[in-house]
Amino acid sequence: MIRPRLARGLRAQLVLVFLLVSVISALTAATVTFRQGRTAIVERAQADALQELRAHLTSRAPDLPADPGEADLRTLALQLDRAGTRGWRTALSYRDGPLVTAGAQAPPLPGRLRAQAASATTALAQRFHHDRTPWLAVALPVTSAARPDGPAPLVVYASFSLASQEQDVGTLAAAARAGALPVALASIIPALLAARRLLRPVRRLRSAAERMAAGGLDTRVTVTGDDELADLGRTFNAMAAQVQADAATLRDMEARARRFAADVSHELRTPLAAMTAVTDVLDADAASGRLAPLTAEALRLVSGETRKLTHLVEDLIEVSRFDAGAAVLTLDEVDVGELVVKTLALRHWSGRVRTDLPPGLRARLDPRRVDVILANLVGNALRHGGTAVLVRVRAGDDRIAITVSDDGPGIPAGLLPHVFDRFTKADAARTRTEGSGLGLAIALENARLHGGTLTAANAPDGGAVLTLTLPRDPGTED
CA–CA separation, 391 vs 402, rounded Å? Predict the structure, then answer.
């Protein structure tokens, strides 16, 4: 079903958005905390290393000669290596000379650090990777007492591994990830609560719209608060009130129009009956030749128009009965084939219409109303179709189908969806036609009264096909 799926979809979207915001916020906080912690750990290690190196140099530099040689530098490097608590490896360079170390192998140093330290007067530090392990290298210039502001003649380098600090950073990252997961999971509960609160007025609006669609125009929703959803509820209530007022106005206008048509039709019936009786007498005089030709022609014209008006009034009265719900069935078990034959014979159409009727087919129908349906279908085919009109009856297990087909031009495509509408005519430009435009509409109402259907279509090889489907016993239909 669509509605529950939409409700679940909207709730899922709200929860997902809330969860994503929470996860992104938690990850952002964890990332910022991790970066700041990593930076603090490395900077603390760098500061401690420089402080310790300065302290050792301060205690040992006075023992150096004014112009130290390679042996003096190697001795100092050995002292610094032994005194360091970080496992650093040191190297010294005097007056941009080669690096002097305590051992045979020089410590790993980035080339850019050495280039910068040659002219530096303050301590420098640089992080780098050696054998896939993070290292920190520091360069500490030792200035001359005679020229404290000039280039330092002696530069002490020290490099040590940051593996332990890297482990601390990894532990910090794991803690940040572990802290983000509970936050994300815990955010589901407030997300569900928020989605429920947001969807509650939406569900009320949906239920109210469904009740209105089912005909409950007095439906209103309870509005609380001043947010956008509350404004939507007020707008819905205003719309519902306006629709209810318009519907009441339209129903009142429709009821007045139906009463007017019914009243006018009934008022016209009596004078039309008198006019018909008079025109019948005058028709007899005109047919006998006792009247002048022009007078006879005028009388025949008046007589024809009187019959058309009488037929129109009878159709309007019948339509008013359907609109008022006063039309009822008078069921009787009849032979469907005999009913078709009688309908054609009563209107002198037997020689003009072919039939295909199964013998002995019986059904419970209202003979008068089925006669009206058949008369309208066959009459319509004779007026607008060709000369080959065929009435065919076929029976199913619980329904019968009566088709009326012709070999005419068929029903225009634009007219086909409206062929059973009231006052619909085959040629709208010809306002003066034999039919009233109500015959097929009355036939459709009679079919519906039986619990059947009436459809119109065009045959593939030309001509119109109108199909009446009726239950064999309307009393057994649901």
Answer: 7
> For tokens 């997300």, what's the residue?
191
Describe the crossing of helices 2-60 and 163-186 by its angle, rounded to 10 degrees: 160
Give the count of beta carbons closer than 10 Å to the beta carbon of residue 31. 13
d(CA 335, CA 367): 10
| Placement of tokens 């290690």 in the chain | 45
Tell me which amino acid residue 264 is.
V
User: CA-to-CA distance for 440 and 329, rounded, in angstroms?
Assistant: 18
Q: If you search the block for the tokens 């065929």, which residue do you land on?
A: 390
Pairing status of strand 399-405 against strand 389-395: antiparallel
Q: In angstroms, rounded to a whole number, what is the distance separating the alpha carbons of residues 48 and 165? A: 13
Residue 419 DSSP code: T
283 three-state secondary structure: helix
User: If you write DSSP's letter for every residue of 157-183 in order, what string do you get?
Assistant: EEEEE-HHHHHHHHHHHHHHHHHHHHH
User: Backbone dihedral region of 2: left (phi > 0), alpha (psi from -120 to 50 degrees) or beta?
Assistant: alpha
CA distance 116 to 111: 9
Residue 228 burial class via C-beta count within 10 angstroms: exposed 0-12, middle 13-18, buried 19 and up: exposed
pTM of the model: 0.49
Contacts 24+ apart (CB under 8 A), 383-389: 383/426, 383/434, 383/435, 384/408, 384/426, 384/464, 385/463, 385/464, 386/463, 387/352, 388/354, 388/463, 389/352, 389/353, 389/354
CA distance 55 to 41: 21
Q: Using CB atoms within 10 A of its CB, is residue 270 exposed (0-12), middle (13-18) or buried (19+)?
A: exposed
Q: Which of 385, 429, 424, 419 is nearest to 404 (CA)?
A: 385
Q: pLDDT digit string (tens) for 399-445?
A: 999 999 998 888 888 888 888 888 776 554 444 455 567 888 889 99
Long-range contacts of the stretch 206-214 (C-beta < 8 A, 24+) = 206/3, 206/7, 208/236, 208/240, 209/236, 212/240, 212/243
pLDDT in tens, 361-394: 999 999 999 999 999 999 989 988 878 899 999 9
Q: What tokens does 122 get?
A: 């303050």
